[in-house]
Design a protein that fits this description.
By secondary structure, the protein is an alpha/beta fold. α1 (13-25) links the parallel β1 (2-7) and β2. It has helices at residues 13-25, 36-45, 50-55, 87-94, 101-111, 127-138, 157-171; strands spanning 2-7, 29-34, 59-62, 79-85, 115-120, 142-143. α4 (87-94) packs across α5 (101-111) and α4 crosses α6 (127-138). Helices cover 41% and strands 17% of the residues. The chain is globular, with a radius of gyration of 15 Å. Pfam families: Flavoprotein. Belongs to the UbiX/PAD1 family.
């Protein structure tokens, strides 16, 4: 499997790092794109460094590199996840404003009818945010907000992060044991 992973500058960069760690263990070919604000959030919110995060991907492109392979539909992938996804990026994607590589790769993913999952991490939401999400949802984009479930009784932040990452993996049929699935007796 080949996925594009976009990390943007919304709080919650840990979701993206964990996604990369899990995909590496699953031997998924990952093309990573990081915005400048994602790099800043990495420093502000975690103890990870950029070198470590880049090491989790098979390929890396700066968000300003509009000539990267993932900017073309001829570059085959199985889809893309933007985790976390800023409202600025979500708006760019919803409105076809492909000024950055993350937005361009998402646009290519949509035009090639590939799976696109956006993980917005913002609260509260304005009507504009909701309208942009609805616009994308209506054309088949999966909007998967960072809203963890608590039925599995999380004991740590890792458990909460793993639940959201696992929900993203489910969208691509990638097997995992990141959380306990709901079962009734």
């Amino acid at each position: 499997m080949r996925l594009i992973i976009g990390l943007t500058g919304s709080s919650g960069i840990l979701y993206g790092v964990r996604m990369l760690e899990v995909l590496k263990k699953c031997n998924v070919d990952v093309h990573l794109i990081m915005t400048e604000w994602a790099k800043k959030c990495l420093v502000l919110e975690t103890d990870y460094d950029l070198k470590y995060v880049k090491s989790l991907a098979s390929h890396y492109s700066d968000d300003s590199n509009m000539a990267a392979s993932v900017s073309s539909g001829t570059h085959k992938t199985d889809g893309m996840i933007v985790i976390p996804c800023t409202m600025k990026t979500l708006s760019s994607i919803a409105n076809g404003y492909e000024e950055t590589l993350v937005a361009r790769a998402a646009g290519v993913t949509m035009k090639e009818s590939r799976k696109l999952v956006l993980v917005p991490r913002e609260t509260p939401l304005t009507s504009i945010h909701l309208e942009n999400m609805l616009k994308l949802s209506k054309i088949g984009v999966t909007i998967l907000p960072a809203m963890p479930g608590f039925y599995n009784k999380p004991k740590s932040i890792d458990d909460i992060v793993n639940h959201v990452v696992g929900k993203c993996l489910d969208q691509f049929g990638i097997e995992h044991e990141l959380f306990k699935r709901w079962e009734t007796t």
